[in-house]
Amino acid sequence: MNKSNENIKLGMFVIIITLIFVFVVYKLSDGRGFMNSSITICAEFDDVEGLLLGNKVRYSGVSVGIVSEIEVVSDRVLKVTMSLDSEVEKYMKSDAEANISTDGLVGNMLVNITPGKSEAPNIKDGDFIKSKEKVELNDMLESLATTNDRIAQISEVLLQITEKINNGDGSISQLLNDSSLADNLKIATRNLSISSQSIMTSTDSVNSMITNVAKGYGNLGYLFKDNSIKHQISLTYSNIDSLINDRTQPILNNLEASSLAISNTSADLDSIINNIENNEGLLGTVLHDEAIATDLKTTFHNIRDGTQKFDESMEALQHNWLLRKFFKKKEKAAKKAENKKK
Questions:
Q1: Are the beta carbons of 66 and 55 closer than 8 angstroms?
Q2: Cα–Cα distance for residue pair 88/66, rounded to 1 Å
């Protein structure tokens, strides 16, 4: 009986030890490869950074497997084999990327897999996936230390600026502490607001005036819209033109007659001068005296020059804008008379 009890106790002890062993293995394997079917995938890294066999593998933060093997391929390449639940084949793509990270700040190392694009095919047993560099904790701490140093420097500068403001140094301090400057600033702002309002009012007035002009209201609108003004201006110009013609035509007729008479006189004077120069006729004999002849010649030459200048003046009158129309009309009348004679 005692021996039988001992055998029973021994059997129970073995069973308990076996159950404890199975439970430990199950926990260490995270329940994978023991009761569930699994697939293996691989990734290559330059540095595994303390990753150990049995460390967890997560996909988008969800635990999907464990690290089953770490193999040194070369001096720069390490192959990490991961055992994953077979269910990941349904949603994990072949372009997923793996990186080594820590479980928290001071936790164990693990492999974190990030999803790829939905267009890529699903992953299969034995596939290799891409790996990406991990941000080192030391690098992060160094960056944080540099950032803290800069923040401390900025804080020191801000503290100095604040002390200067409190002590009344600088323009900003005067602006904050001088009440009169603040009052002047308020007055300037108020005046600027009043000026802006006045400008807006003036602009509205100008826009209203332009609108009234466009609609034909007021004297200026009447000038823009009334077509009779143009006719009146044209009629006034025609009347002025007729008045000039009526007033200047008799004068021009007299000038023309005088010019013709002067031309005839000039011809006679030329004949007389020629006779005098040749000592012909009674006048040439009377003027045989050289002194008298010289005076007469000078006088006749002056008369001829004056006649020539008068002709030039008449020609200039023909080019004057007030008399140009008259001469053009006279020229047309002469041409019509010649055409009638032909």
A1: yes
A2: 13
How confident is the model over 88-137, as pLDDT tens digits?
Answer: 888 888 889 999 888 866 678 899 999 877 788 888 999 999 988 765 55
Dig out the tokens for 189 from the structure. 């702002």
Q: Please state the φ and ψ torsions of residue 270, each to the nearest 5 degrees.
A: -60, -40
CB 40 within 8 A of CB 68: yes
Q: Quote the CA–CA distance of 308 and 290 in Å, as a whole number.
A: 27
Go through 6-17 and write b for each residue having 16 or more CB atoms within 10 A of its CB, e for each that does not. Answer: eeeeeeeeeeee
Residue 335, both tokens: 């041409």
* Residues 6+ away with beta carbon under 8 Å from 79: 42, 43, 44, 69, 70, 71, 72, 73
